[in-house]
Structures are given as structure tokens and as C-alpha cells.
Amino acid sequence: MPELPEMETYREFLSRNILHKPITHVEINREKSINTPIQKFIESVQGKHITSIKRRAKHLIFELSTGENLLLHLMLGGLMFLGSKNNSPDRTKQVILEFSELQLNFIGLRLGYLHLLDKEGLAEKLDELGPEPFEMDLKDFQERISKKKGALKPLLVDQKFIAGIGNCYSDEICFEARLDPIRKASDLTDAEMKNLFEAIEPVLKRAIQHGGYMDFPMYEGDTKTGNYNDNVLVYEREGERCYRCGAEIKRVESSTVKSFYCPHCQI
């Protein structure tokens, strides 16, 4: 599932390519991927343009010239591809937005969605999300985590605790902080809390720099998206050697959540 770095990579790319261009055609091939009748959705979007693209947690928000918004959550299996009819992927597209010769294809939205919302509806939809990682300070983080008792991995992926982190980057953050992902938050010392907080931003920024770990290209000739796969520290590296100490990376499951970690240098 795309996490903060993937959605930020998508946001940056799309912001450079589709802002302020008229949406010339809208095609809906799966009504369950949207939240209004098909014709109403088309009438609300076609002929308008996108004034800005923002990210909130694992969502993208396409602000329309009408003041309404398209809220995207790709969920598990969701992808986007910007191209033309000539290089469009041979995949089922649930929604297509056309910008003259350009097509923005939303693929794999069986669990994901693209919802049309006014400002109030958008605020309500996002209301329960926790703070953005880049907008927290150490004091806020310490206050929030000091109230928690569960393991670090489930806590870091809890969108109500902190927004945008999922399975991949929670493991990477715990590795950077030298903490076992199944350690209890209530057992952390002040120094360990600080280490965990200080690991979040560099891990996420490094992942953004490398285009995230989702390796489906955003456009023809895309050589950046997914490059973090070649730079992961522990995620999906079970049986390989730790870059820091040389020990074998292990996989552990806790509360139905799998984690990858180094049992030697993560305590």
C-alpha cells in the first residue's frame, strides 16, 4: 500500500504536469470507486481544472476550480499512470481523467476510491487522522507516545497516532532508531523516545528522494518511482545481512502485523 513517500512522489509529479489544465473528459468504469452517481460526478469534474494537489497522510487531495475536492486513497493495489492513449498500461482503469492529450489513469481502485467532496465533507473524512510527521515536534511526539502501551510497529502504522506511515517505513524507522518493532511504547526511555522521533523525518525524506518503494511507473520512461526498493534497510530483507552490524535480518509477526528487523542492533 502506498505510504507518505509514495503519495508525496505522486503529488510532486502530478503538480508539475496537470495543474490548471482543463479536464476535457471523465470516464468512470467502476461506480463503486466514486461516491456519487456517475453522471453527477462527470458533470462536477468535466470542464473544470485542478488548482492544487495536496497530500494528507496517505491521501491526495485534488482541489478543483469549483471549490470542491477529489479525495484519493489508493489503498491496497491502487496505482496511477499519466500518459496518453498510445502508452496507456494494459490494465483495467476504474477512473480516467483526460487533459486533452494527457490521461490520468486510476488503476486497481477495487479497495481504493476517488471521492468528490465539498470542504465540509473533506474535513469530516480526514478528521480522525493524526498529525503529519513533518509537522510534529519532539514535545508533541513525547506527549502522544507516553499515553500508549502497545508495541511500536502497530502504533506507528496507526493513522490516528501519526499519519502516513505504514508497514514499510515503520520498520525502516525502528531500524534507524535501533529499536525492536515489538518493544512496548510504555517501556521506552526518554532517550529512546527521542531517537524514535528523530528517525522519522530522515527515513521518510530519504524515501521521497528515492521515489518510494512502489515500483509501478507513473509515466513512460519513469526511472525514479520505486527506487527505494534498492535502498531499503530492513523491509522485506529477511535472511539478508544487516548493513549496520552484519547480523541476519529477521521477520516477526505481532498483532497480525509483520515486521522486519535486526535482532542484534535493534533492542
What is this entry, summarized?
The protein has two domains: 122 residues, N-terminal domain of MutM-like DNA repair proteins (Alpha-Beta Barrel), CATH 3.20.190; 129 residues, Helicase, Ruva Protein, domain 3 (Orthogonal Bundle).
Describe the protein.
This is Formamidopyrimidine-DNA glycosylase. Keywords: DNA damage, DNA repair, DNA-binding, Glycosidase, Hydrolase, Lyase, Metal-binding, Multifunctional enzyme, Zinc, Zinc-finger. Monomer. It comes from Fictibacillus barbaricus. The chain is of the alpha+beta class and about 270 residues long. It folds into 2 domains: about 5-125, N-terminal domain of MutM-like DNA repair proteins; about 135-260, Helicase, Ruva Protein, domain 3 (Orthogonal Bundle), CATH 1.10.8. Helices cover about 25% and strands about 20% of the residues. The strands form 3 sheets. The chain has a 4-stranded antiparallel sheet with strand order 1-6-7-5. Strand 9 (about 250-255) and strand 10 (about 255-260) form a beta hairpin. The chain is globular. The mean pLDDT is about 95.
